[in-house]
Design goal:
The complex is a heterodimer of chains A (144) and B (122).
Chain A: H1 3-15, H2 20-63, H3 67-97, H4 101-116, H5 121-143
Chain B: H1 7-21, H2 30-40, H3 46-58, H4 66-103, H5 110-121
Helix pairs in contact in B: 1-4
Classes of the chains: A mainly alpha (144), B mainly alpha (122).
Chain lengths: 144, 122
């Protein structure tokens, strides 16, 4: 696979729904060996971590009530939320730099709908995506 | 999707549908997972969800494995496997066919049209 092919596949995985890295591994594997290649890449990427996480889940189910463990997990979840916020910030910066007001308004609207009003994600996406695509379409045609 | 249904089937259905709407990867679906697991299905408390989120971020492997932990807490090892497969397989199949469509060039005009449309949105 060339760097260009990789970039193209990577971009496509971000556009498609579902866990990006899993999708990327399946596409990558299937380029080389078709369906068996895709299955092998999937099993290789997901198999061992699933085994580890299942063991962790069993340990949590058994020892999750221990006070020290609860406090450790509370600390880890703070760090994890911080990482998530920094990823959100990195994705938001291009919108701010380009002064993309429409993008930021849609971002805020989806955040309010999902995060504050707790509306179901499928419903929000089915409303917001067509609106966002339609606006981009109109704006791009205006520029071109 | 009522609560007396088989929990394994509920897991499969819940995460199978969710995967198709998880645009932007597994982290984008975390609020939706919280809504379904805590508010709708009452599978776990707020505190347990936060713990499970911490474990999934700490553990090796893709972040999507938070569904493995949710599945385990609902229905043990079987639940863990079913939740993981339900979250990964539908979109992996979709990715496989889209990838094949886009690489199997000249005979179809669709790949060029879709790719041109995507570039225009960027």
């Amino acid at each position: 696979m060339t760097a260009d092919e990789f970039n193209e596949t990577f971009a496509l995985c971000h556009f498609l729904p579902g866990p990006n890295i899993v999708n990327l591994s399946v596409m990558f594997g299937s380029r080389f060996r078709g369906i068996p290649g895709g299955l092998a890449a999937f099993a290789g990427l997901v198999g061992p971590p699933v085994a580890i996480v299942t063991i962790l889940a069993a340990l949590y189910a058994r020892y999750g009530e221990i006070d020290a463990l609860r406090r450790i997990l509370a600390g880890v979840s703070c760090a994890a939320v911080g990482l998530l916020l920094s990823a959100v910030f990195r994705m938001m910066m291009p919108l701010i730099k380009r002064r993309d007001l429409i993008g930021l308004v849609i971002l805020a609207a989806v955040f309010i709908a999902v995060g504050l009003l707790r509306l179901p994600l499928p419903a929000v996406l089915l409303v917001a995506s067509p609106i966002s695509i339609a606006i981009s379409f109109v704006v791009c045609r205006g520029v071109a | 999707m009522n609560s007396d249904a088989n929990p394994i089937l509920t897991l499969a259905w819940t995460f199978g549908v969710m995967s198709l709407f998880a645009v932007g990867g597994a982290n984008a679906a975390i609020p939706e997972m919280h809504r379904l697991a805590v508010d709708v299905q009452h599978w776990m408390t707020d505190k347990q969800f936060a713990d499970i989120f911490a474990i999934s971020q700490m553990a090796p492997g893709p972040n999507v494995l938070i569904v493995t932990l949710i599945g385990y807490s609902v229905a043990g090892v079987g639940g863990a496997l079913v939740a993981t497969l339900a979250m990964c397989v539908p979109t992996a199949v979709l990715a496989y066919y889209v990838s094949r469509l886009l690489t199997r060039s000249s005979r179809s005009r669709w790949p060029a049209i879709i790719q041109a449309a995507l570039v225009r949105f960027q």
